[in-house]
Amino acid sequence: MDYSPALMTDMYEYTMLDATLRDGTANRKCVFEVFTRHLPEGRRYGVVAGTGRILDALERFHLDDEDLRFLSDRKVVSPETIKWLENFRFSGSIKGYREGEMFFPNSPILQVEGTFGECTLLETLILSILNYDSAVASAASRMVSAAKDRPCMDMGGRRTNEWAAVAAARAAVVGGFKGTANLLAAQMYGLKAIGTAAHCFTLVHDSEREAFQSQINALGKNTTLLVDTYNIEEAVKTAVEVAGPELGGIRIDSGDLASLAQRVRNQLDALGATNTTITVTNDLDEYALAALQTAPVDSYGVGTMLVTGSGAPTCAMVYKLTERENADGVMQPVAKKSKNKATVPGRKLAYRSYEYNLADCEHVISGSEDALAAYRPADGWKDLLVDFVDHGEIDPRWQGHDAITAAHEYRAKALAELPITAQSLMKGEPVIPTETTVL
Prior knowledge:
Layout: H1 11-23, E1 29-36, E2 46-47, H2 51-59, H3 65-73, H4 79-85, E3 93-97, E4 102-103, E5 110-115, H5 116-120, H6 123-147, E6 152-154, H7 162-174, E7 179-180, H8 183-189, H9 199-204, H10 208-219, E8 224-226, H11 232-243, E9 249-252, H12 257-270, E10 277-280, H13 286-291, E11 299-302, H14 304-307, E12 317-325, E13 331-333, E14 347-355, E15 358-367, H15 369-374, E16 382-383, E17 385-390, E18 393-394, H16 400-416, E19 434-438
Helix pairs in contact: 2-6, 6-7, 7-8, 10-11, 11-12
């Protein structure tokens, strides 16, 4: 689809822009912050994902003539604002937690600095990407922990919106997955693609043997054959007869997966196919994966529960103004005082402290630019903020395949630095507290 990310907004972002251009406040310098007040119920941590997609979208965040006509014809904004938008490019700066980083309640996941006019236009795009991608990455990370050293693959494309499926595939890899069945995601982001055949492939042939022979002829003996269309025991026997003991793998998509995997492993070994792997699928989540830890399974395909965040399809992140230039040109911390929605004023620093090489606290330091510049963290605290955009210039290190690979590796390292209770699937509080200090 050829579309502008600059229209992936709520209408009120443009009406606010229009009003502030009229009254002169659109050009006031501002700092906006993305954070969540709470993790999904019972979760111990979250995983940041989607920042690279935000940067990709920023490169195309402008309006063409057709977009401007739409805004004009609908009278969303005034002719003066249309003129302002003609050459719009984001010229501000963005910093935040890198992809693959752990986050907790009130972590300043992203900070956007620029004029009010340009920063307010980014709200919906940033939140829609970070909320969904981080939800998927967080669920993926829990699943990877439950799977131990066995690889997990994304098979959720048919269980969500077609574009969400692409985003989910990318976020899943950030969260620890090894590949995806989604070819567009594989093409766009250089991900490993996986997939062989569905039950319909077996059903379209006159016999299971003919289906297996056809697949092997096309894909070679190292392929993975789906064995639960009819009778699993007969299918495994036929598969080894057709492919020989060099058969690459078999997949089971139904039934009591642990029991079936055990029986199939014993059967394969008895038939001499000792190196043939077993993959299981079928509505898996982190709890099902944990229950399969003792089963002789080699890899997992995960669909519905991955792309829906395993029951938490959003991270409840918000985008709030925390500092703005006042009428005298001085930067002034601001905050909401709404009941249960109060915010902490001022731009933020973020650190993580450690004891015996394990994280023990998230430290959020808030204050004026000068106060933060003079702040010195304690020895051994890790600075959690990195620069993504500097006065409109995007740092390409955080985009593309290499950035996804780095995030994939960083997540594992960051999780290993948390107390081991982070990997518990039992409901509990965030594994480390967040302490906020206002200077």
